[in-house]
Amino acid sequence: MKPMEMKCIRIIGLKKDLQAVVGALHKSGLLHLKNTDYTHLPDSKYLAKHEQVSSCLVRVRAIIEALPPAPIAQNSGSLQEYSLDSAVAAAELLEPLESEVRQVASAISELNEQHSKLVEQHAKLIHYRGIGFDFSKAWQSSLVEQKAFKAKKPELLAGILPPDKFETLAFPGGLVIAIGRKGAFSAVLHELPEGVEELELPKGISDIDRELKAIEEKDEALRVSLNGRHGTLSDLSIKYYAKLLQLEEVLAVWHTRSEAMRRTRGTENFFLIEGYVPAKRHAEFKEYMALASKASGLAFEELPSDHHEPTLLGNSKAVLPFQNLLEFISLPKYSELDPTILIAFIIPVFYGMIIGDVGYGLVSFLLAWLLGRGAKGGLLKILTRIWMISAIPTIIFGIVFDEFFGMTHTALAGYFGIQLANPLYLGFHRMSDPSQLIFITIMLGLAHLALGFILGAVNEWHHSKKHALAKLCWLGIEITGTVLVAAVFFNTGTVYLLPAAGLFLLFLIGLGATEGIISLCEVPGLASNAMSYLRIAAVGMAGVILAEIINELFLPRSKDPLIFLITLVCYVVLHLTNTVIAMVEAFIHGARLNIVEFFMKFYKGNGLPYNPFKAEMKYAKEAL
Questions:
Q1: Is 18 helix (H, G, I), strand (E, B) or coil?
Q2: What is the DSSP-derived secondary structure letter of residue 596?
Q3: Are β-strands 6-14 and 299-303 bridged in parallel, bridged antiparallel, or unpaired?
Q4: Dist CA 510 CA 476 (whole Å)
Q5: Which residues pair with 181 in a beta bridge?
Q6: Nearest to 599 by CA among 448, 480, 387
Q7: Helix (H) or strand (E) holding 335
Q8: Sign of CA dihedral 596, 598, 599, 600
């Protein structure tokens, strides 16, 4: 339950071997670089061709950005090899291509701008197509003005354009042209009803239809020209795209190495690099570096912990979805416990207890599997895997609760005409004994919180014994407080009342001494933490009630085929909906109990991710 062990190491070598060593580090993909403590030593220099690599990389990326993607055949056996010099030389020869691509892209931009203007003009004029109105004379008078309106219903304009003030011309499609004295429209424009919009009047156009036709012809010519330019870029992409990706990849690798070289420190003759390597691969790393770098006199020194180690989780594939969820929330610090295994067990158990239905468990597994097939990654992919895993305890608890789509196994068998003389087993029916279910969930919550305090003490023990004792005091307060509540309010275990009260007071004093007097104000909150687990019972019973209502109203029983079909469809849809709601609610409440109630007792998070200095090449390979 700890992150993978890291070793902090220092590499010392001759300055003449720095480029080769950095290249070997990059290929090994194991060292997480850190800033050295020897800040008084000067920084090393960039790669000799750093400026050339940077400018070439910018050029190649600019060309790639301008070209449409082309299919790439990835065949590791025939990858193009590039050295630093050959990659720079090849990129410098791309200047004519860059110029051509820039010219074509500029032409496309201009054509797109012209096309946008034509589209805008066409959108303004299209309302007036076919009305035969000459707008070239509409602006001759200085005493009157004209406005055009588009109304979904003609009667909308009747109230705001009275005939004693305006003359109106109505056209098909809800178009109305109104004529009135100068300034008469100001009140109208402030009170336009919903469904009426003012249109811009064409200025100086005598024949709208002819103007529209001219715009459409110009736009078609632009489209042809645009297609030709895009075709040119496509041809260039087919010819050069693969090579550009190869060069971009190689140049990016060398640029990264150059930046890494700049971060190293040393003297004129020596350099030093510091970082972290997974302990189990430390020997492999040293052996690889000695062979790959071919550097003479390369020395490795193990350093004591500086308490800034990165976190690398090494859980099995079986719990990987829960590790992904933990990383999504917050990565644990290197020095604290990794709770992945715990939440991989607890979240599905809570989920199963909330839903607790065999039928819903099977359907939720199927729905999660279907969603997972369409999910390409991210949080949805994580959720679908967790839902599939959680469906297993859902089925188990469904058997315990004797719930099969809201029916007992005897009722389900009876519906299909199988009459059982005696039940196959006696399940724990949640609706028949809610008080017992509430008691179980509260006790489960108390055990969950107690585990959190124990883990908190373990986390703190090596850093601060005082804080570890505070966690143990919280644990004592929880246990003795539970005994006191049972004795005072439920008359249970009264023989332990006085000892529990004494210990409770002792633990309160210990908490005040370790965390301060103000921490005592948080003690009542412990009760609300425990009560939060009631949601397991409450949400679960709400789901059972919904399932029973669906069964009561829509379980197909009619002998009429049509009514049977209608009720069957309603039955299936409603149970599917209830399943989806249950899946979301059960995950949210189960995750909340872990993240808010449980994690707050021990988990800090905000760990530094293990990010090794690594080169990943898909399209090219580095020449040896």
A1: helix
A2: I
A3: antiparallel
A4: 10
A5: 144
A6: 448
A7: none
A8: positive
